[in-house]
Amino acid sequence: MRRERGQVSFASHWGRSVATRAARQQTTFARQVSKQGIGLHTGAPCGVHLGPAEADAGVVFVSDGVVVPAATDHVVGTERATTLGSGTATIGGVEHLLAVLWAMEVDNGRVEVEGPEIPACDGSAAEWVALVRKAGRRKLSAATGEVKLTEAVWVGSGDSWAVAAPAARLAVGVAVEYVGTAAGRQTLWMPLSSRRFAAEIAPARTFCLQQEYEGLLAAGLARGGGAGNAFVVEANGYSKPLRFPDEVVRHKALDVIGDISLCGRRLAAHIIAVRPNHRLNVELARALRAAWQEIPRQGWSQGEMTR
Ligand SMILES: [Zn+2]
User: Fold this and answer.
1) What is the Å distance from ligand 1's center to 81 Cα?
2) pLDDT score for 5
3) Is residue 41 part of a domain?
4) What is the 247 CA–ligand 1 centroid distance (Å)?
5) How many domains does the structure of the chain reveal?
6) CA 251 – ligand 1 centroid, Å
7) Domain of 297?
8) What's the pLDDT score for residue 87?
9) Is 278 an annotated catalytic residue?
10) Inside any domain, residue 5
11) What is the CATH number of the domain that holds 131?
C-alpha cells in the first residue's frame, strides 16, 4: 500500500499487472456529425463536431486550436464533472461522451469543441449514442489490443473505493448510498456490451441531492441544470419521473465508464466502484495506466497492443 497524489489515500497494485491479447481492428467515425447545446455547469452555449482520426490517434479534443488528448495526463478538474485541459484550453463535462465512445468501440476520433463544456443534452448520454450511431464506424487497418489484468488495481479515499480485478471480459459494478434520501442504497452489476450500455446505462440522467442543489447554484455551478438536464434527489422522492427505478446508480455507472476510459486502453477487467466520484474514477484510470507503463513497449505481445 502506498500514498498516491491528491486526496486519494491508497492506490495499490502488485507485480506485473497486465498482459494483452489481440481484440479486433481499430475503428473511427465513418462521417462527421455535430451537436449544439448548453453546458450543465456554466449554462453557456456549446457544441461539438465529431470527425474521423487515424489509427493510434485515440480520442482527441480540440478547443481553440489546442489539441487535448482524452487521457489521465490531461485531467485538470474532477469537481462534479471531469475536465480536460492543455495550456489555456479547458473542456468540461467530457465523461458522458467518452463513455459512449468507449462502450460503442470508437477507438479514434477528433472532437472539435466550441465553448467551455460538452453540451449537457438531457443530462444523459442517450443523445450521444444517437449521434455516434449517426456518425457510424469505419474500420482501420491497425489492430487494437485489450489489456487483461493479472493482478488487481485498487484505489480509495475514505469510504469511497474502486478496484479493477482480473477478468475475461469488461464488467462494471457500482454501489451508492445516499442516506436520508429517496435514492437510499443502490447497486448495479453489468457485463458491458454496446447494446446493454445503450439501452440500460446511457439514458440515465445527471442528478444532484436536494441539499447540494442550492449550494451548487450559489457556487455558480449547475446554471444549466434547471433546463431539463438533471433531476434532484429529494428526501422522499425526485423532482421528475425516473427513467429507471435505480437511475441514480445507472448514472454513476455512466460516469465510471467515461472516466475509466481515460486510461487509454481497452480493458478486460471487472471494475467495482463503491460510492464513486470523478476524482476516484480518474485515480483508478491513473493507477491502471501506471500498472502497464511499468512494462516496456516490447513487452506487449507481438505488437498486438498498438496504442
Ligand atoms: Zn455524469
Assistant:
1) 7
2) 39
3) yes
4) 11
5) 1
6) 6
7) 10-303
8) 92
9) yes
10) no
11) 3.30.230.20
Instruction: Give the Cα separation of 70 and 31 in Å (integer).
Output: 20
Residue pair 254/99 in contact (Cβ under 8 Å)? The answer is: yes
Best CA proximity match to 80, nearest among 257, 247, 240, 252: 252
Query: Which protein residues have a CB closer than 5 Å to ligand 1 (ion)?
Result: 206, 255
Whether 4 is covered by a domain: the verdict is no
| Site of grid cell 482480473 | 166
pLDDT for 7 equals 38
Q: How many CB atoms lie within 10 A of CB 10?
A: 15
Query: Which pLDDT does position 195 carry in this prediction?
Result: 97
Is 1 contained in some domain?
Answer: no
Q: What is the mean pLDDT of each run of 10 residues along the chain (307 residues)?
A: 40 53 84 93 90 96 96 95 95 97 97 94 96 97 85 92 94 97 97 97 94 75 62 94 97 98 92 97 94 52 32
Model's pTM, two decimal places? 0.89
Tell me how far the alpha carbon of residue 292 lies from the centroid of ligand 1, in angstroms. Answer: 27
Ligand 1 centroid distance, CA of 249 (Å):
11
Report pLDDT for 204.
98
State the distance from the centre of ligand 1 to the C-alpha of 270, rounded, in angstroms: 20
Q: Residues 41, 251, 270, 278: which is the catalytic one?
A: 278
Q: Calculate how far, in angstroms, residue 19's C-alpha sits from the geometric centre of ligand 1.
A: 31
